[in-house]
Amino acid sequence: MGAVDRELNLAQMQPIVYQQLQRSFEHGRLAHAYLFEGEKGTGKHEMGIWLAQHLFCTQLQDNQPCGTCNNCRRIENKEHPDVLVIEPDGQTIKVEQIRRLQTEFSRSGYESRKKVFLIQSAEKMNSSAANSLLKFLEEPTGDFLAILETDAVGRILPTIQSRCQVLHFQELSKESLIHKLQEEQISNEKAKLLAFLTNSLGKAVEISQDEWFNDAKDLIYQWFVYLQKHDTQAFIYVQKKLTKAFKEKSQQFTGLMILMFYYQEAQYQAINAGEYGKVKQINRTIERILTAEQKLRSNVSFQAVAEQFVLQTIF
Asked: pLDDT tens across 12-25, in order?
């Protein structure tokens, strides 16, 4: 991703954090350590790379990294000697990794006085690594910027948190999430459904790869088609297909949410087409889906709930 694209993307994904860091640059008030915390896929690492490029770029444009100079390209490719990225070694970040970092940072930068390190999944530091990092933050040597990234801030030592400026990365807007999912080669229609089911990019990608989910959405869509046509096959379909595929309570709720998505999509289309009689009909059906969810929570069987919903909808 080029620097201009990254800047636009970050400004849209995380406007509050982006503006806060941009103001810090403009006023020369960058902290020496940041803790970026938020859900997976909210742009924490992209923001860290942008921050490093900002410090080392040789051709800043409107106080933004150019993305094309030698420094920007090397940081993008993890090849800059003064920008180090630490990732978990297996399941944890080990004390040896932090000690190597300390040794490296005890020297001045290879190409400037500054050094930057980014620690991904910082919550995975084992206790020795966390304590070693804490000592490093308490007794900094040289001119460096530390960026810690986590999606589990509660697992970061409070003493480390207190040494950092904590910036919260908000969950993605529905539009941003759909765009990110499309970048993962997920179709627009499926991306919209996933964004309806969750606002977490990591969770959405995980769901998209689930074989049960991919079968389930197709089954519910076929049911939706029968219901829209007031076809009595919708009733038979409950016992023939749905009760076999939606056995667990969580699956049954997911099925109703998927059905809700298809009806809301039909609602938007009807509104755009000015078919207000159809909109009222869909509104009544959406109310029935909500009632069906309540009955399911009251331990009415899924088959009974689904069959009653069909009878109320097609007759």
From this structure: 789 999 999 999 99
Cβ atoms of 32 and 147 closer than 8 Å: no
Instruction: Indicate the residue type of 166.
Output: V
Nearest in space to 257 (alpha carbons), one of 289, 279, 287: 289
pLDDT in tens, 211-243: 999 999 999 999 999 999 999 999 999 999 999
Q: Sorting pLDDT into bands at 50, 70 and 90, what band is 40?
A: confident
